[in-house]
TrEMBL record, chain A:
Its EC number is 7.1.1.-. The lineage of its organism: Bacteria, Pseudomonadati, Balneolota, Balneolia, Balneolales. The gene is nuoF. This is NADH-quinone oxidoreductase subunit F. Belongs to the complex I 51 kDa subunit family. It catalyses: a quinone + NADH + 5 H(+)(in) = a quinol + NAD(+) + 4 H(+)(out). InterPro entries: ComplexI_51kDa_subunit, NADH-UbQ_OxRdtase_51kDa_CS, NADH-UbQ_OxRdtase_suF, Nuo51_FMN-bd, Nuo51_FMN-bd_sf, Nuop51_4Fe4S-bd, Nuop51_4Fe4S-bd_sf, SLBB_dom. Keywords: 4Fe-4S, Flavoprotein, FMN, Iron, Iron-sulfur, Metal-binding, NAD, Oxidoreductase, Quinone, Translocase. NDH-1 shuttles electrons from NADH, via FMN and iron-sulfur (Fe-S) centers, to quinones in the respiratory chain.
From TrEMBL, chain B:
Residues 102-141 form the 4Fe-4S His(Cys)3-ligated-type domain. Residues 240-296 form the 4Fe-4S Mo/W bis-MGD-type domain. InterPro entries: 2Fe-2S_ferredoxin-like_sf, 2Fe-2S_ferredoxin-type, Mopterin_OxRdtase_4Fe-4S_dom, NADH_UbQ_OxRdtase_75kDa_su_CS, NADH_UbQ_OxRdtase_ferredoxin, NADH_UbQ_OxRdtase_Gsu_4Fe4S-bd, Prok_molybdopt-oxidoreductase. Keywords: 4Fe-4S, Iron, Iron-sulfur, Metal-binding, NAD, Translocase. GO terms for molecular function: 2 iron, 2 sulfur cluster binding; 4 iron, 4 sulfur cluster binding; metal ion binding; NADH dehydrogenase (ubiquinone) activity; NADH dehydrogenase activity; quinone binding. This is 2Fe-2S iron-sulfur cluster binding domain-containing protein. The keyword Protein biosynthesis does not apply.
Length: 429, 578
């Protein structure tokens, strides 16, 4: 199917005018999946819905790529107390800008997906955490939520079927860490966004100590597709083991940057050359960050035959992440790029864990030295050493996200970094 | 019983344990900064990293799986674990820095990161000498620094509140202070601001850190970031003696350490006692140290003509006191004991004058209704109200005491400013001959005809019964004119005692107060009056009390030392105002 990407018709953001309007969404079969379930709760028991999603193998689109249905199944049995679904729309990693397309063009698909997830997990309250800078999209989603309440898809006794589910929007104040799932929970609780130590995991102890599942916006938007068409149909879209439509956010030195919906597993070079119109100005490709700035950069010569799915990218030495592809042409200064990425992670480290708090700053400062031509070759080895001191030593993955680009960019473009370092002068005895 | 294997040694355990605390309980050492046994576990310093795994068991047989060499197979966790947040489970295998190069390296790496932006100025830092970061860097840290770029400079000398000053650049973001205000004092006055290596704890804008327990954050700060405004840069910890004692500023009897240098108490810090105060104490109790140094009664005072008091020799004071006692009938003598004085002081005071025929001493409680909180500050402002009651002193209201004073010809009081706290007035004391056994000059000593200087809690070994009925004791922390650190077995010795000489400019005789323990003064008075009354030590007094009074049965200084105080067979949740 991935090979047929050219004939693929978008499913998440189809080309239907005014689809953000609830009437248009309904006219095009919108909320059909929800109706299907609520009209036949015997067939579509909560467990069956979860199993269908599990079987479809929707891999989380927030970066980690975990099976969404499996994640739902970690929720403990209801005990009568509150349970939550927290929807993560706090995308703010450089290169990642896909969820806003859903908020803008097809918000009800996400709402419907979230409602199905809430039903499957016996959740009665959904929180949507959106990046604060997305104020226009916040308004768009709020309008959609208001319309869904008015039409009886949200609130008490949904579609007269005795199911009560509420949805609340919360927007962040601009901290990247709040996109990390447990920091997001802290932020939703009104606290400073610090990651939580796991265990306990959110499914056991999440918002206000209650069972909570956190899903990415795009992940949830895939759910109605599975319910409408079945797990088998979904599993045949795109790459094996990583199926479904994907929103590719292509930015950087391409002629037509943007968000493109295509199946998973599209060849990287097709995405760059055909979908995004090729490298800007007819230049050559130098490097690609495949899935947001934290995913390891790949040299152009490493991209042959690589497709956009977890296995292929892992084999190539990188990750799928959020499919936020940053394309860099031959004129790109990798030292400048890496310093800018390091600057971002230094700025965004929450400061809770020592290796991240002090490591991210140290990385950036050394890179600034090198960028300014004041670095020495030994600084490169120090940088690599520091990344090993940071990786896997912190509560959340921000330290890893800061360390990987440094390690892989230096390893894959070492000559360029060495050339920027000043020549070492050694005294001759 | 479940078992764990730490550095190759097998331990059996029961119940739930976190690995770090369990290892500390076993006497093992793993470095840490953010962990505090009384607060939640944030696992943010990442210093207590260990390698951990699990012996693999066969699901069907429950037997351990063995490798080709017959050794148990271990499934190591993919990452190093922070031992503070690692829950022990049956068959867990832990390697600390003692046996794991990986753990040792991680701890060294973490310290290198902590020191990257931390000032490396231990010689001038206020925390030097008692800084866990300093100690752990020596034990587990890297040699030298590879940090050759500019450090982050955060705010310095920030007055967070009336008692706490922040040097933010030293902060390692352990969040102990923030968690203290959230979880212990519940004032929620501190939070962390800014991100990454720029962050530090502070109050909300325009708010002040005036939490009545604010100074506890200074105690638990693992670096010199939070300092006591009062004590900051006043002394070095290695110059001081640290003596265990009891807080005498309220009825809780918080366990404390008195920090002395050159016979002055320079600060008071809490001493852990899970039965009484955990690790904490109120700020106001720390101010009590001034009473031990300032405005002390040194040498007896006698009112000779009119209202003028003048210094007198001890011989003259004893002779004067004896003559007053001889000239008056014992029934005309009124004894007023004190909830501010120790069990031993009240006991010997009462016993001595009983021998002369005087009735039991009275005492007035010092309770301010509504003053206390639900934590460590009590309505009772005295440390030994329960002790006075258990010694059968007569609890008297202000009016009862006024009537008794008006009927007495001689009033003898023990370490209690009854005027300042409005139990008696100056005019009440105009007619009788008033003798005060006192530690500090106050309204009561001003109104007295004879003032006998006595030792304070910082100068004697004595016990106090707190509002919950727990008897705890103090040790002498300061020398008096007649005591010597090297001759008195109760006293600790510090660096200066061992290595200083009388010619060192920090040794100052002026700071030794010319006073006596109550029992020692009464010894001398007894000798003059020909009474059979002699103690050699306060320990003897407690031995006698335990023999005579059932409530104190089996109480001894030794037991109090071993058990951190003894719960007496009484329990008073609240001391009622009479």
């Amino acid at each position: 199917m991935a090979n047929d990407w050219r004939s693929f018709e978008p499913l998440l953001i189809p080309d239907i005018p005014n689809l953000q309007k609830i009437d248009v969404y309904e006219e095009n079969g919108g909320y059909g999946a929800l109706r299907k379930i609520l009209n036949d709760t015997e067939k579509w028991s909560r467990e069956n819905v979860t199993n269908e999603v599990k079987q479809a193998n929707i891999r989380g689109r927030g970066g980690a790529g975990f099976n969404a249905g499996l994640k739902w199944s970690f929720m403990p049995k209801p005990d009568g107390g509150p349970r939550y679904l927290a929807c993560n729309g706090d995308e703010s990693e450089p290169g990642t800008f896909k969820d806003r397309k859903i908020f803008e063009y097809n918000p009800h698909l996400f709402i419907e997906g979230a409602l199905i997830a809430a039903y499957a997990m016996t959740v009665d309250t959904i929180y949507v955490y959106i990046r604060g800078e997305y104020i226009d999209w916040v308004h768009m989603l709020q309008k959609a939520v208001d319309d869904a309440y008015e039409k009886g898809y949200l609130g008490k006794d949904i579609l007269g079927k005795g199911v009560d589910i509420d949805m609340h929007l919360t927007y962040g104040a601009g901290a990247y860490i709040c996109g990390e799932e447990t920091s997001m929970l802290e932020s939703l609780e009104g606290k400073r966004g610090y990651p939580r130590v796991k265990p306990p995991f959110p499914a056991q102890k999440g918002l206000w100590g209650r069972p909570t599942t956190i899903n990415n916006i795009e992940t949830l938007a895939n759910v109605p597709l599975v319910i409408n068409n079945g797990a088998e149909w979904y599993g045949n879209i795109g790459a094996e083991g990583h199926p479904g439509p994907v929103l590719y956010g292509i930015s950087g030195h391409v002629e037509n940057p943007g968000v493109y919906e295509l199946p998973s597993g599209v060849p990287v070079m097709d995405l760059i050359n055909e979908v995004a119109g090729g490298i800007r100005g007819g230049k050559n490709l130098k490097a690609l960050i495949p899935g947001g700035s934290s995913t390891p950069v790949l040299r152009a010569d490493q991209l042959e035959g690589v497709t956009m799915n977890a296995d292929s990218l892992r084999d190539a030495g990188s990750m799928m992440g959020t499919a936020g592809m940053v394309v860099m042409d031959e004129d790109t200064d990798m030292v400048d790029v890496l310093w800018r990425i390091a600057h971002f992670y230094h700025h965004e480290s929450c400061g809770q864990c020592t290796p991240c708090r002090d490591g991210t700053g140290w990385l950036e400062k050394i890179l600034l030295k090198i960028k300014n031509g004041e670095g020495e070759v030994k600084d490169l080895d120090l940088l690599l050493d520091l990344t090993t001191q940071m990786e896997g030593r912190t509560i959340c993955a921000l330290a890893d996200a800061a360390a990987w680009p440094v390690r892989h960019t230096i390893n894959r473009f070492r000559d360029e970094f060495e050339a920027r370092c000043k020549k070492s002068v050694h005294a001759v005895a | 019983m479940p078992e764990v294997f730490i550095d190759g040694k097998r331990y059996e355990f029961e119940g739930d344990h976190m690995a770090l605390q369990y290892m500390l309980d076993q006497g093992l050492e793993v470095p840490f900064f953010c962990y505090h046994p009384s607060m939640s576990i944030p696992a943010n310093c990442r210093q207590c990293m260990v390698k951990a795994g699990q012996y693999m068991k066969n699901d069907e047989t429950g037997e351990y799986e063995l490798d080709e060499e017959g050794e148990r197979k271990i499934r190591w966790f993919p990452k190093l674990q922070t031992s503070c947040a690692l829950k022990l489970s049956d068959g867990m295998v832990i390697q600390t820095q003692e046996t794991s190069d990986e753990a040792e390296r991680a701890q060294k790496d973490t310290l290198e990161f902590i020191l990257a932006n931390h000032p490396l100025d231990c010689p001038i830092c206020d925390q030097a000498g008692e800084c866990p970061l300093q100690i752990q860097t020596y034990k587990y840290g890297p040699e030298g620094s590879r940090f050759e770029v500019k450090k982050v400079h955060k705010p310095k000398r920030v007055e967070l509140g009336p008692r706490v000053t922040l040097d933010a650049e030293r902060c390692i973001n352990c969040t102990r202070c923030v968690r203290f205000t959230e979880e212990i004092s519940e004032s929620h006055q501190l939070t962390i601001v800014s991100r990454g290596d720029k962050n530090y704890p502070i109050t909300a804008p325009s708010e002040t850190f005036d939490d009545p327990y604010s100074l506890n954050t200074v105690d638990i700060c693992p670096v010199g970031a939070l300092t006591s405004t009062d004590f900051r840069f006043k002394a070095r910890v290695w110059e001081m003696n640290q003596t265990p004692s009891i807080d005498i500023s309220n009825g809780k009897g918080c366990n404390v350490d008195l920090w002395t240098r050159d016979n002055e108490v320079l600060r008071i810090t809490p001493r852990q006692n899970d039965h009484v105060n955990d690790y904490w104490m109120p700020d106001e109790s720390r101010n009590a140290y001034k009473l031990f140094n300032e405005n002390r009664v040194s040498r007896p005072f006698i009112k000779l003509d009119g209202d003028n008091q003048s210094n007198s020799s001890w011989n003259n004071a004893i002779e004067t006191f004896a003559e007053v006692l001889e000239a008056n009938d014992s029934s005309d003598i009124l004894l007023i004991g004190s909830p501010h004085a120790s069990v031993e002081e009240n006991y010997t005071f009462n016993k001595f004058f009983n021998l002369l025929g005087a009735p039991n001493a009275r005492f007035a409680t010092h309770i301010i209704d509504g003053y206390g909180d639900d934590f460590l500050i009590t309505d009772d402002q005295a440390p030994n109200t329960s002790g006075c009651r258990l010694l059968n002193l007569d609890e008297s209201s202000s009016s009862e005491l006024k009537t008794a004073v008006s009927q007495a010809k001689v009033v003898i009081t023990l370490g209690d400013d009854l005027i300042d706290r409005d139990v008696l007035s100056v005019s009440d004391l105009e007619d009788p001959y008033v003798v005060s056994l006192a530690t500090n000059h106050n309204e009561m000593t001003k109104a007295s005809d004879l003032v006998i200087p006595i030792t304070c809690v910082a100068e004697h070994a004595a016990s106090y019964v707190n509002i919950d009925g727990r008897i705890q004791r103090s040790f002498p922390a300061k020398e008096t004119k007649y005591s010597n650190r090297r001759l008195n077995l109760e006293m600790s010795e510090g660096r200066l005692d061992r290595f200083g000489t009388n010619f060192d400019n920090w040794v100052n005789e002026d700071n030794k107060v010319d006073c006596l323990p109550v029992w020692e003064f009464l010894n001398k008075l007894a000798e003059r009056l020909g009474l059979e009354f002699e103690y050699r030590h306060s320990r003897e007094i407690m031995t006698e009390i335990s023999e005579k009074l059932d409530t104190f049965a089996d109480v001894s200084f030794e037991r109090m030392d071993e058990e951190k105080g003894i719960q007496l067979p009484i329990k008073q949740s609240k001391v009622e105002q009479k």
